[in-house]
Amino acid sequence: MLKPHPLKVLVVDDTVVYRKIVSDVVAEIPGAEVVGSAHNGKAALLKIKTLQPDLLTLDIEMPEMNGLELLEQMHHIAPGVGAVMLSTLTQESAAMTMRALELGAFDFIPKPQSGTMAENKKAVKNALLPIFKAFSRRRQIKGLRRSASAPSAKASPDVIRHNGQSATVSRKSTAVSSIVGIGISTGGPNALARMLPMLPGDIGVPVVIVQHMPPMFTQSLAKSLDAKCALTVREAIHGEPLQPNVAYIAPGGKQMKITAGADGCMRILKITDDPPENSCKPSVDYLFRSIAELYVGRATGVIMTGMGSDGTAGLQQMKHNGAYVIAQNEATCVVFGMPKEPIQQGIADVVAPLNKISSEIIKTLAYKGKGR
Q: What is the pTM of this model?
């Protein structure tokens, strides 16, 4: 259930049909209420001032003032108001959605492209419900932090190792990793945009990433990250060999794993249409299992912000096979879901804030360079 105080939602879309669909869906979600609707960003700005919503469902492409322009304005007039983007499945919309996430949108859902009104309502509700719950939990946590008067509540959290010692202690194992696997979901694009540029371009190993996203959006994410990073970042292609200093993002709507090449030494990316796992496609568990099998004692697993528990089972296998596990801490997660269980189970060797994950990754490698 959401928190007792209703989540006030403003529906912003230039299409009457979608304003109706989303408004009806929100009305059916316990703990949420529609406080109004607007047909473009300019109208939404006026209603934000008068209705004081907690969250907007926001279309991107609208006349007069589009969703991106509205998000930019909200930084000044309503920085505390969240936004969930409704995006069409096109390359242009995917690129704009990446920009919306960079501007602070909480998450996005794809607009249904076909089906009856009832089917579309069901699809939108299934997508919005967990997002609303996650947003409400985040809002509640922020409220508790604001009410805490102790200076430590505002301090930057430190890195903690599984034995509770400070992260200034060096890694005890002499083994070094030959690959870095990253699993991430809600809040991921922004988190990756902050973390990956902190990794040097000559890191010496490949990085493989599962970011929960539908088709087309992962390609836009890869392009956006590639422009920011010293590493090469690209959407993974079936059959390509893994190369050092390249970060590969699993294509949305597909599964990605690593297989052995014909020589037994080369490692090849395999993109499949295997079923979802944990309702996810791509799935972190699916990727991490293959890392566990092929990189015994020489892999680093990283689990970051996101809803659900995808990645926990895969990390268990990686850990059993000698991997080093890094988890993002609760304070810097948009949603503390995916890292929570590995931390609670003691799988994580280190729990780190977002701004220190890259340095923790580097400690597990044989990196001797000077970076960028």
A: 0.89
Helix axes 91-102, 217-226, angle to 10 degrees: 50
One-letter amino acid of 306: G
Q: Which residues are catalytic?
A: 185, 212, 310
Q: CB under 8 Å to 142, separation ≥6 — which residues?
A: none
Separation between Cα atoms, residue 67 and residue 85, nearest integer Å: 8
Sign of CA dihedral 252, 254, 255, 257: negative
52, HSE (Cβ side, Cα atoms, 13 Å): 1
Q: Give the pLDDT confidence of 238-272 residue by residue, as tens digits.
A: 999 999 999 999 999 999 999 999 888 899 999 99
For 214, 249, 371, the CA distances from 210, given in Å and listed in that order, are 12, 6, 24
- The single-letter DSSP state of residue 334 is S
Extract the tokens encoding 269.
Answer: 């990316």
Question: Six-digit token pair at 265?
Answer: 């030494």
Could you list the beta-strand ranges (E) of 142-298: 160-161, 179-184, 207-211, 232-235, 246-249, 255-260, 267-272
Supply the pLDDT for residue 170.
36
> Residue 27 is which amino acid?
A
Residues with Cβ within 8 Å of 132's Cβ and at least 6 positions away in sequence, in order, are: 2, 7, 29, 31, 32, 55
**Three-state DSSP class for 233?**
strand
The 10 Å Cβ neighbour count of residue 357 is: 26
Q: Are 160 and 331 in contact (CB under 8 A)?
A: no
Amino acid at 85: M
* Residues of the chain predicted below pLDDT 70: 1-4, 142-157, 163-174, 370-372
Name every residue whose Cβ is closer than 8 Å to that of residue 270 and which is 6 or more positions away in sequence.
238, 239, 256, 257, 258, 259
Nearest Cα to 357, choosing from 209, 167, 169, 228?
167
Taking 3-state DSSP, the helix, strand and coil percentages for the chain, each rounded to the nearest 5, stand at 40, 20, 40
> What's the confidence (pLDDT) of residue 291?
98
SS3 331: helix
Sequence-ordered list of residues with C-beta below 8 angstroms from that of 277, at least 6 positions apart, any chain: 255, 283, 285, 286, 310
At residue 80, the 3 state secondary structure works out as: coil
